[in-house]
Request: fold
Amino acid sequence: MDDSMRILLIGPPGSGKGTQAQLLEERLGLTHIGTGDLLREAVRNETPTGKLAKPFIERGELVPDDVVNKMVEEYFRRPDAPRDFVLDGYPRNRSQAIAYDGLANELGIDIQAVVQLQVPDDVIVERLAGRRICPVCKAVYHVSANPPRHDMVCDVEGAALVQREDDKEETIRHRLQVYHERTEALADYYRTQGKLHDVTADAPRESVYRAIVALLEQLGLEKEVRG
Ligand code: ADP
Ligand code: AMP
Reply:
């Protein structure tokens, strides 16, 4: 019997996908797979993928599908690829969803549930402008809603937090526009598959987390929940 858990978080930039994926990793043991994190690491390491992706990320555009699909495929074909995971930021449009479904059929890693985090645009801009991340462990903070224990230093790593290059107001607005144009159709794709579930995410992060876990329980995935 397949007793692993594979979920996807979708929603606009700043809706809290990374934050919730991090909690699901800590508390339920799901591996957090964030394509934004993987791409930023590739940029930092100046790999061929990173060099290709950099200008798109800086402009707030989507990195071309073939580049991202290939990166994800390589990730899942590794012998140590996780069986229990939460995808964050991929698939991001219909064409990536179709590519992932092809790979998933072959590898037996179909997405069981898609959680759509819903947050109004005005809240998003405030969240992203205040976002700070740990450059070492990728932990996500917010200057006022979720500050680190000590001034601007990661609770886990002690590293100085940084602001993402693409979290400037102008780029944020462009990313939101890209989201509305390209990524919203993704919800329809998963709705048709009967996998889409909405969660109100304009609420404190613990409430959002509880709503996600309640949903997983309601879907009968609770036997896999280990926290
Ligand atoms: P995404 O991965 O969807 O882009 P993040 O998880 O990085 O979003 O969250 C964006 C910003 O909003 C971060 O600064 C994070 O600390 C903050 N944040 C996340 N969830 C909440 C919440 N429920 N309430 C307030 N701020 C939040
Ligand atoms: P995120 O960390 O999810 O906010 O992603 C940051 C940026 O990385 C996005 O604005 C895109 O430029 C790029 N990116 C991340 N995931 C994808 C994806 N699945 N497809 C295309 N571009 C992506």
Q: What stands out?
A: The pocket of adenosine-5'-diphosphate (ligand 1) is lined by residues 11, 13-19, 127-128, 130-131, 140-142, 145-146, 203-205, 208 (CB under 6 Å). The helical segments are 17-28, 35-44, 48-59, 65-77, 94-107, 121-129, 169-192, 205-218. The radius of gyration is 17 Å. The chain is about 50% helix and 15% strand.
